[in-house]
Amino acid sequence: MSPTHTEVTVPADLDPCGLPEHPDCGIRDVLDRVGDKWSVLVIVELARGPRRFRELQRGIHGISQRMLTLTLRRLERDGLLTRTVYPTVPAQVDYRLTPTGATLTHLVEALATWSLTHRETIAESRLAYDTQHPGHDIH
Asked: How many whole angstroms separate alpha carbon 76 and alpha carbon 74?
């Protein structure tokens, strides 16, 4: 550990599982999904109601068709959204949050609001850091 870093120990009563032999208790796996930027943006879009694939793609700037497909499959696998195929020609498909997925909306929307509120401050901090530490490529 470098001299500028401080070691932090987490008291046992704050450990999410209380099991030192399994310190993340599977939390990391769930956070990897719901903390992924594309998952967050899909959840924000679906919080407004059911959407078709193209509606989602138009609503999420910068997401590729492949990444949207992968993100939707992962969220469906995790039980956070449902995919409904309607028997029409051509087939219509919509995506909607499950009751479990819907419980995330207030958290994800709060994170999105926080991000919008603080984006300028963060951009300024990054610029100041990059100016003070040239050559530290951490992007």
From this structure: 5
